Amino acid sequence: MTARSVPPVSTSGAVPMLIVADGRVAAHMAVAITTYVDNARRKYRAVPPELRPIAQALAASAMASQAGTTIDHPAAVAHAERVEPQLLSIAQVAAALHVSTRTVRRMIAEGALTAVHVGQLVRIRVTDLDDYLTHLR
Which residues contact 111 (CB under 8 A, 6 or more apart)? Predict the structure, then answer.
């Protein structure tokens, strides 16, 4: 962990210096200050004008310390294989089997096809659909 000086932008002319030891600390401080300022303004309380620029500088410091992801570098993932969905909707299963959604719902109700619930959504595992197709006569 290395300490960095973060010069926030100031409207008053003086530029206070903050010492930030870690990007995660800077991120937490930025969120805390922003939340405080937002709550104070919502309650019509006076807020020092320097707080918003300090929070912005902390957020910029936190973002600068974060490592890039592979998505930031498309060339690094160009060779990656496409990930197929693990769950299918009733409409997707109906389209794959060339039947109506009502038929798929009937198959689920009869126990011929296993479904799972994701919240209130009904989904069919790809593996369950494969098993159903394998056991067709």
Answer: none
